[in-house]
Amino acid sequence: MAKPATYREQVKIENTMRLREFLSELPPYVKEYFRAKETTTSDKTRLSYAYDLRVFFRFLQETNPTLHDKALSEISIKDLSMLKPVDFEEFEEYLKAYKTPDNRTETNSRTGIARKMSCLRSFYDYLCKRELLTSNPVRLVDMPKIKEKAIIQLDTDEVAALLDYIENYGNDLTGVKLYHYQKQKYRDIAIVTLLLGTGVRVSELVGLNISDVDFKNNGIRIIRKGGNEMIVYFGEEVEKALKDYLELQRNGITPLSGHEDALFLSGQKKRISVDAVEKMVKKYCSAVSVKTITPHKLRSTYGTALYRETGDIYLVADVLGHADVNTTKKHYAKLSDERRRSASKAVVLREKLDTQ
């Protein structure tokens, strides 16, 4: 009997199938581009790129009179070679708000536009590298300027208030609402405590299995972005929250087939989804803070606390699973500046004389 696919393997299969759906609409040379990208990108990244390229080809079909009657798959390299920088500037403008084939309105922030333009730049680089095109006009287009965002996280008091709030959330509930809260109480506490106490990504959290938890060493085995396996260690508070959840709730549930080893389950007895965790975090956090808090912001809360305690940016990068420490430095630059300022008072050149 074949061994059932792990959560990560199942996600990869689903992403691969969705990628094939996107590519079935696009020209053959686009498929070749994705084959070339397979060894250097994750399945999630390739899926995002495919979505972005489909948006671009739909834009061409919709706005270019010579391509109106062509299917997306019929748009040729010659058609692409006719495009000028101004066409890509028009695409940037188009991305701010456009209609999908099913008449939904889609919008993009500067970050979203920059991502799609970056994808196009990479795609055209590939076509030039394969000598299918002689130049890359996307490189002549200015990319949207991305404003630096301040790190949003919970303060120490807000963290304590959040955990207290979840523990006592049921005090004012009755009936069905109280029943559902009690049913998921220990799960919710364990999830939020784990996010705050380890800084794992929400995608890593939902992929956890019971067999990934090692109470002997207080560590969890997670699959990082890119597929790398790593042990993330946790402290006593996380240990207690996980044990309470397992002993008082999880062990009493019979999951649906295929979800037997999933650590965190939904109300339907299936592995909990990223969307469900995001909604749960938003519900609780909105009661204790005016900030818009997501699971990623809880990750930032952990990263900030760890950096303030240790001052070791390389440790923070390693624990958070950042492939490039410069990513970590960029996020915590303000905190680094605070530490440098405090260093100015650490060295005294001459002791002040006591005048009394």
UniProtKB/TrEMBL annotation:
It comes from Sellimonas catena. Residues 24-128 form the Core-binding (CB) domain. The keyword Cytoplasm applies. GO terms for cellular component: cytoplasm. This is Recombinase XerD. Residues 149-345 form the Tyr recombinase domain. InterPro entries: CB (IPR044068), DNA_brk_join_enz (IPR011010), Integrase-like_cat_sf (IPR013762), Integrase_catalytic (IPR002104), Integrase_recombinase_N (IPR010998), Integrase_SAM-like_N (IPR004107), Tyrosine_recombinase_XerCD (IPR050090). Site-specific tyrosine recombinase, which acts by catalyzing the cutting and rejoining of the recombining DNA molecules. One of its GO terms (biological process) is cell division. It is found in: Cytoplasm.
